[in-house]
Amino acid sequence: MKPVIDRLRAAKSKTQVKENLKDIPMSELQAKLESSPDGISQDEASRPLSQYGANEIKIADGNSVEQPKPAPDLFLYAADLLRLKPSQCVVVEDAAVGIEAALAGGMWTIGLGSSDRFKTANVIFPNLIDVRWSNLQLKLKASVRVDK
Length: 148
Description:
Blueprint: H1 4-10, H2 14-22, H3 26-29, H4 42-50, H5 73-81, E1 90-93, H6 96-104, E2 108-112, E3 123-125, H7 133-142
Helix pairs in contact: 1-2
């Protein structure tokens, strides 16, 4: 199978891009960024994303806002950067405090890890291996949503 970026570059229209993304495992779409205790610079964070062809990179981190999680400030700031309403955002988190923050901001949530850690996430997966975007959309649509 072709790498994700090759499949996206081969698309001739937005519709074809959406079709190409539909059955790509979510784990292939992840961009893993690890931060040191002192944090990671925006330049350092941008490098892995730009190698996948991202033209416009927006980065929000704990230094972008005053209130840390569980306050929703960071996620609301990120949504604003992307010019999205919170209800249009899906937050993937491996920490319960992150799920709490995203829900407080009115966003959809995916908890990664054990289901006993995420009582309130809209959808829970042990990891993103073999999770397809099309499957994820169905699970989110079927989940209970309490809008703010």
